[in-house]
Structure formats: structure tokens, C-alpha cells
Amino acid sequence: MALLFPTLAVIASTASAPISEQQEVETIEVKGVRSRLIESGALKDDISKTELLSEDYIKNTQSSSLADAIKNAIGIRVSNECAMCGAKRIMINGLKGEHTNVLVDGIPMHTMISGFYGMDSVAAAGIGRIEIARGAGASLTAPEAIGGTVNLVTSDPSEEKVELDIAAGSNGYRLVSGMATGISEDGRTKAILIGQYDNKDQFDGDKNGVSENPALTNQSLTLSLSHDIDYLNNIRIRLNQTQSEVFGGPVLGDTATSISATLASVNLGEADSLFEGNDVRNRYVGNAWETAEWVKTDREEASISWLHEISSRLNVTSSLAYVDHTQDSFYESTDYYAEDTMFYTSVRFNYDLNDKHLLTFGFDQRKEEMRSASAALEGTENYVSDSFDYDTTGLYIQDTWLPSDYFEASAAIRLDQIKADFVDASKPGVEIDKTIISPRVDMRYFHNETLTSRLSFGQGYRAPLSFFESDHGILDSGKGFLVEVNQPERSKSATYSLSYEEETLTVTASAAHTKVDHLATLSENDEGTPLLTQLTETAAVTAIDISANYQVTDDLTIYAIAEQYHYDDSFKASFGIAPIEKRASISSDLHFKSWEIISSATWVASRDLTEYGYEGYNDTQAQFAKPTTAESYITVDMKVSKAMSETFTLYFGASNLFDYNQAEDMGSPLMFDAEGGYDVVYIHGPLRGRMAYAGLTYEF
């Protein structure tokens, strides 16, 4: 696990400080229209509780991806959904990964399917901060965020420089990232070019020839431009191209020679057995393809945003975005190809009505088209393609009201027309064609100079579309797939937080309760065919957490969090992988002369796996049952850095320092069901062991 720095130092300041304190230009004296409006409060968004992960936090956790950066943030869990392909889902407030919406500079840039294999490929380089808003309807521009939103804010250059970060370590870990910034002489034009390459090899904790965590290689290139056309107009352009390749299952150099040879080994047919003695605890003896998963994705993003100050009281931001996500994959002999294209348009006004009211209103439109194909499945009798069209058009208005210096409230309402259509020939008509109203209310009250309360209520929705990847029903692909979806998921949530802040101590406690109707789940019919359907019961989850940040001295800061999630039986039944129920951590940041030592320990409580439907065996004869209790465990991380000069730093460290991993210490995630069927999702612990590394950063 990455080093845990819950953003406690900034949580309370976010609760009590206006947005103008969060963004400012440090060295450029001529401030552009965007900076000027932010500092005046004219671009204010909302007052809901938001956690911030700073650029320093991202670097200190040795994060190479979005999934690395946020996996230990309070209220966040990054769930590993498969031991072979390593699909990551970002869960907020205990909700599912598909209930989280990822934004880039406030614009929704992730398609339905990119949430499955996109989180490990979003480069950490160049992210200025990560904003996490929890709760349904957490963003005016992302009502589908039933759990919340994660907004990646690109670094805002304040000087011309080049930053390099180069690291290498165990398990094939490699990281090379660079960021170059440029600013025109008049300060009106800023440019930032970001590139990153990172790699991790497969991890096989029990040395049986099958990895529990896949090899992952990413490379990305991003260009961001900001130009003040004049005193009243600013334009921003962002371009990104990302490539990612994942390979899991037979270990390269052990039970597999290469990826291409593994995919071609389908021609060998099925082996007599997969493991010696037909037991997953023994050596793998099957053909390489029989436990192999390979996923290659190519992703292109483009966005443009124009900010125009109409008057001192009215401004408008117009945005366009395009995303193309292409996936080519292989799952135990089954091929799957998908291309998901999204167009997004938004016009947003901010109107300073008077000194008590700020109005935000506008509309947005999203058109998404996903087309998939599988040669192995198209001849299956019960197969229904997961290709879909998804269109939404929304109108919204929000009033931020400041009746006094101690109380602030915002009330917002969205009206959305949504159409979700599975386009397979066997699914005539439009599955979902609804007009949805989603209200939201946020309140903040300053009890005194140190104590602040926040209370939020909201509704959200999500159209349950892509399922092929979501629950890995692909492992039963010989039986086909069926779809029975006709309602959007609908949620209601309430969140309360109480923050205490003084000079050296910050404490924030919060509670959130969310109910979801028509929750999508993967089931099966009487013939055993995987079926995408929806729960008839309302599912609910309650999340409670507390965080503390104590500055012991000028050189030592200690952080701590504790969190607990309670799921009702309906919600538990919908999970494919058992979520964390209780987690606690303590971290420290120590500065000593030119040294910095960052350490953390994270504890995860035990769980009853039978409550989440776990049942499996180590052998095909169902004689050796797998454990039905997930043991509690602790992981420790550490990073030490030494500043050799103002521009050159050396560092070394390790994540999961004591090498605690499920396969070696708790039992393999590989399993057989009662009928002898093979699966790879008996997951309840860390799937990657220790990763030691050393590196350097250089700035010029």
C-alpha cells in the first residue's frame, strides 16, 4: 500500500476557507481572468465537504497513477476486482466503483468502460491536486456520481522549469516522468507538457506459477495550454494520449514464455488439469491461455474551455470534450474488443446577484457510444452484446446564499433527460428513457473560530450499462449473457461533518448514509447464464470516519484516521469482492535538516466472507474449503528522501515494507467452485507484496 497521508491538514481549512485561498499565482504579477475570478469568488462552485490531496502528497506516496494516489485517502477504497487483470474500482463512502465519477479540471472525462481499466493508467505526473467530494450529486456537472467525484486538477505553472523523476525498484518497478512548463513574458500564456512511463511486473506470492497481481505498463503524454486572450477572456486546451497494457495469470519467464505465445496457446486445447493434484496451492501445469488475461487500452482525450467575463457580476464558461477509449483484450480464450467514444458539451454561468446570493446555472450534454465485439461469444445461443448508446441532456441551477458570516447554504436542482439503449438486435426499443430531477442542499455553519459543521443532502442517478467487465461474468462466457435492465439506479444521501481546527491540531469527524434503489447486480438465470439485473430491494450503506492531524513540532507531523462501513444485506449481496468494513491508519512526516522521513501503518479489520457470498475450494473435488473469514492485517510503508541541493533530491523506500500479501499469508485468490469450475476472485487481502525502490528528482 502506498504511504498514507490523509489530507487532514487541508480538510478543515477547506471547510473554513473560501476557494480563493486554494488557488493563487505565486510569481506572476499580472493575474489572468481565471485567477482573478477565482480569487474574487465569482467562480465559486459549492460548499460541500471536499478532501484535497496535494501535489506533495502525491509525490510523497510514490504514486505513479490515480489509483495509487487515492487508495488510502479517507473515505476512499480502491478495490482490486480480479487477481488476473487487476481491474481497479474507486469506491467513495462505501459505494461501488461505478458510482464514482472522475473529472479532469472539472470536466467529466471518463467513459463507462474506462472506469474498469482506466484508474491504473491515469498518470500521477502533472496533477496539481486531487479534489474528492463525497455524496450523491456531489458535483453540478456529474449527477451520476452516486458515491462522489474525484476531480484531477492539472498543475498551474507559476514559473518556467523542468522537473524529472526517475525511479527503479523490485518486481520490475520503473518510473520515468517529466514536466516542462513555460510562461510568456507578459504572463498571459502558460503551457505545460507532461510525460510519464511506468511499469510493474507480475507478482506471484505463493510461487505456484500464476500471478495474483498482473504486469502493468503505462505511457502517457499530456499538453495543457492556458491563454488570456484579453482582460475578459481565457481559453484552456488540454490534450492527452495514454497507452496501457496489462497481463496476468501465467508468470512470464516461468509458466509462460511471452504474451503472444500465451494468446496463441489456445490452439493447444485444454490441459488434463490446471494444477498439480488439481489444487490451486500447487504448481500450475495447465496451458498458459487457460488462466491468462490480457488487456490493452488506448485512450485519447481532448478538451477546450473558454471563460468569458461578461460583466463584473456575470461570467460564463463554455466547455467541449472528446474521449475515445479503445480496448483489446483476452480472457481465458475469450476475446473482447470495445471502442467507447464520448462527446461532452457544457455552458455554465455564474451570476453575482448581490452580496448574499451567487447563482450558478447552465446546461450540459453527453453523448456516449460503445461498440463491442467478441468472436468467441457471438455464436453463443444466449449471448447479448453489451454495446450501448447513452445520451443525457441536463439543466441546472444553484443558489449559494450567505445570510451571515457564520452560515452559508447552497441549494441546487438538476433536470436530466437520459436515454440508455442496449443496441443488440435481441434488445429492441430503449431500455431507459427517463426525465430525472436531482436536488441537492449543502450547508456550512461556523460555531466559532475553531469549530465548523457541514450538512449535505442529495440525490443522484446512474444508468447501469457496461457489465461485461464489471463483474467478470466473462469467466462463464460459454453460457452467454443476458440483460434485464429498465430503470436507472436512484440514490439518496445525507452527510454530516464536524471539524475542529486550531494552530497545531485538526480533527474532522463525519458520517454519511446512502440508499440506492434499482441497484444493478450480476446474477444468473435458472440455466446458469450470467444475467445483468437490478435489485428489487433498496440497498443502503453507512460510512463513519474520523481524522486527525497533529503538528507535534515544526519538523514532525502525525496523521491518523479511523473509518467504518456498514452495509445492509441487499448491498452485501450485490458485491463481487468483499469491501473493507473497518480501517485505521497512523502516519508521520519527519523533517531533519535536509532529510525527510515519511512512514505509515494501515490496519484492516477481519470480515465474515460468507456475508458477501464467498464459497470456494482449493481443489476440484471440493475437499479443501477456502477460509470464510478474512483475517485482519497491517501493512507498513516508508519513504526517505535527502535533498542534496535546492534542485536535486535522492530518495528510497518501500511500500508494503514487511511483504504481507494474501497468497503467501492468507491463501490464494484462485479457487474452484463446488462444481469444479475455476475462478480467480476469492480476494480479501493485499495482492501485491513489498515493492522497494530508489530514485531521484531533478529540477532546472
UniProtKB/TrEMBL annotation:
Where does the TonB-dependent receptor-like beta-barrel domain lie?
278-657
Task: Give the GO terms filed under biological process for this record.
Answer: siderophore transmembrane transport
**What Gene3D superfamilies does this protein's entry cite?**
TonB-dependent receptor, beta-barrel domain, TonB-dependent receptor, plug domain
Give residue ranges for domain TonB-dependent receptor plug: 49-149
Q: Where in the cell is it found?
A: Cell outer membrane
The answer, when asked if Membrane is one of the entry's keywords, is: yes
Q: Keywords in alphabetical order, please.
A: Cell outer membrane, Membrane, Receptor, TonB box, Transmembrane, Transmembrane beta strand, Transport
Q: What topology in the membrane does the UniProt record assign?
A: Multi-pass membrane protein
Record-linked InterPro entries: Beta-barrel_TonB, Beta-barrel_TonB_sf, Plug_dom, Plug_dom_sf, TonB-dep_rcpt-like
Cellular-component GO terms for this entry: cell outer membrane
* Origin: domain of life: Bacteria
The UniProt GO MF terms for this protein read: siderophore uptake transmembrane transporter activity
Can you tell me which family this protein belongs to? Belongs to the TonB-dependent receptor family.
Name under which the protein is recorded = TonB-dependent receptor
Biological classification of the source: Bacteria, Pseudomonadati, Pseudomonadota, Gammaproteobacteria, Alteromonadales
